[in-house]
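Sample intake sheet
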Amino acid sequence: FDLRNHGSSFRDESMSFGDMAKDVFRTMDSLDIATASLVGHSLGGKVAMAAAFLQPERVEKLCVMDMAPASYSVADGSQWKTNRQLIQALADMDLDSLKDRRDADAKLAQSILDPNVRAFALSNLVQDATTKQLSWKCHLDAILNNLDYLATWDRDDIIDTQEDLRYDGKTLFLAGAHSRYIRSIHLQDIEAAFPNFALRTVPN
């Protein structure tokens, strides 16, 4: 399932967690799926958590990879600064001046040194078979415009009641050993919102 503005999914200027969680349930409804176990990575992890808060009765189990119910900043020691730099670098690329993905990789390498990160990011780059024109498969402008919001975690954007954000179903948090998105400072918030959680770390 591609979130809005990602992959082949529809494009929209709004990227609130509440709206994207509702997209998940609309997709489930269209497929006649009453309940499901949700797995989300990174931004998808935040959307999966929001969905579990919004309609917990429809979420059998939850798996959140490399994300906590937290806000991030460029100065908090997480990798958010690196992610922000990457997305800005992609937005700054003049696709009309590039011939192909190899050309794009060489250009991106001027600001993003990690070849694995570049390869992942450039998987969003497509080339028209006839015109050879390069374009982004994702709606990069919308993602860039919502970037500051996507770093946050605000309950009021998820549910419109004064109830605490809480999901009592079984929840697995998967943290990367070299990642800084799930840390000890997040455990109190995780336990408060997901009392039936387990945390596992993936090595290397």
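Comment: Residues 17-30 form the longest helix (14 residues). The mean pLDDT is 93.
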